[in-house]
C-alpha cells in the first residue's frame, strides 16, 4: 500500500528518531506494540499485560503478571497532601488540568531522584492515576472523599468502581480493558514526542508525563474523543446527523474523531472499539447515539474519504458506560502513560538532546533604537 502523501509541515513524514516500541501504519493500517499485532492484544491480553510488555520489554509469564497486578493494586493509595491539593481544584476545572496538576504534585511528593527508579515511578503513576482523577471528580461533584484503594483486579474495573461507587459489570470492565489497550501506545504522536523531548534534557519522569498530558489535552489529539461526544450528543437521528455533518463540511469545519496524521484509509483501532460500542448500545437499549455515529462514519467516508480514528467510537462506548464526557481524555492518560514512560526509558537509554533547527522567516538585521525614538 502507498504511503500517505505528506508535506514537511508539522514534521510530517520525517523520521525524528528510532523506537523498538511500536509501528503505526507500516502495512497501511497496521499497528503493533513490540511486534505484537493490536488485534491479538485487544482480543486476548489484559491491559496490565500490555503495560508490562511496554514498560518491562516482554510479555509476562503467569507468575510475573500475578506479581505485577499485586504490585499495582498495592500502589493505589494517594498521599494526603495530594488529596488536599485535589480538593482545592474547582468542579468546573478541566479534568485534564486536574491530571496535569495531579501528576506534577505526585512528582513533588515522590520525586524521581535517580533514573534507577524509573520503573517503580511508572508503576506508581499507572496505579495512582485513576484514583487522582476520580478522587477529584467525586469530591468536587458529589462532596465525597473516596477511598482509592479498591481490590479490583483490573485498572479499567478500578476506574469505573471509583467513578460509580460500585464494582463494574463484567462487560464494562472488559470494554475498559480493550480501550486501555487500544490507547496505550502510538509511536511518535504529539504527546509521546513531548515526553521524549522533555526526557532528552535528562529531566525527571513526572515532568515528562506532565508535559505529555498537556499535549494530549488538545482537540486535535486526545481531546478529540470529548469533542466528538459534544458533537454527536446533539443529534436526535441519523438524518439530522447527516444534515449537520454536510453543513459542517460545507463550512470547512473539522470533524473531531476523523482523519489521522499517519494512517491512510483506516485506523485499526476503530473497528475494535466500534464493535464494543455496538455491544454496549445493545445493552443500554440505545437507538439513537450508535446509529447517529454510524451515519456520521458513512457520510464522512462518502463525502471526504475520511475515516474514524481511535477516538470517534470511544465517545459512544464511554457514554454507554455512564462515563461523563469530561473524563474521556483522562482515561486516555491512564492508558497512554505506559507508552509515554516506555518512550522516556528508550530516550534515556540512547540519548541526545532533541534540538532541531528552524527556518528563519523574520526581518533581516535591524537597527537598535533607544526606547524614546521608537514609534
Ligand atoms: C488518538 C488521536 O490523537 S487520533 C487524532 C484525533 N484528532 C482528531 O480527531 C481531530 C480531527 N482530525 C484532524 O484534525 C486531523 O485529521 C489530524 C490532526 C488527526 C491529522 O492532521 P493532518 O495530518 O494534518 O491531516 P491530513 O494531512 O490528513 O489532512 C488532509 C486534509 O483533510 C482535512 N481533514 C483532515 N482531518 C479532517 C477532519 N477531521 N475533518 C475535516 N477535514 C479534515 C484537512 O483539513 C486537510 O485539508 P486541506 O488539505 O484542505 O488543509
Ligand atoms: O499517532 C497520532 O498522531 C495520534 C494517535 O492516533 C495516537 O496518539 O493514538
Automatic annotation (TrEMBL):
Reactions mediated catalytically: oxaloacetate + acetyl-CoA + H2O = citrate + CoA + H(+); propanoyl-CoA + oxaloacetate + H2O = (2S,3S)-2-methylcitrate + CoA + H(+)
Record-annotated active site: 260, 311
PROSITE patterns, alphabetized: CITRATE_SYNTHASE
Pathway(s) served: Carbohydrate metabolism; tricarboxylic acid cycle; isocitrate from oxaloacetate: step 1/2; Organic acid metabolism; propanoate degradation
Pfam families assigned: Citrate_synt
GO molecular function, one term: citrate synthase activity
GO cellular component, one term: cytoplasm
TM ranges: none
One Gene Ontology term from the biological process aspect of the record: tricarboxylic acid cycle
InterPro entries listed in its UniProt record: 2-MeCitrate/Citrate_synth_II, Citrate_synth-like_lrg_a-sub, Citrate_synth-like_sm_a-sub, Citrate_synthase, Citrate_synthase_AS, Citrate_synthase_bac-typ, Citrate_synthase_sf
UniProt keyword terms in alphabetical order: Transferase, Tricarboxylic acid cycle
PANTHER family registered for this protein in UniProt: CITRATE SYNTHASE, CITRATE SYNTHASE-RELATED PROTEIN DDB_G0287281
Family the entry assigns: Belongs to the citrate synthase family.
Protein name as it appears in the record: Citrate synthase
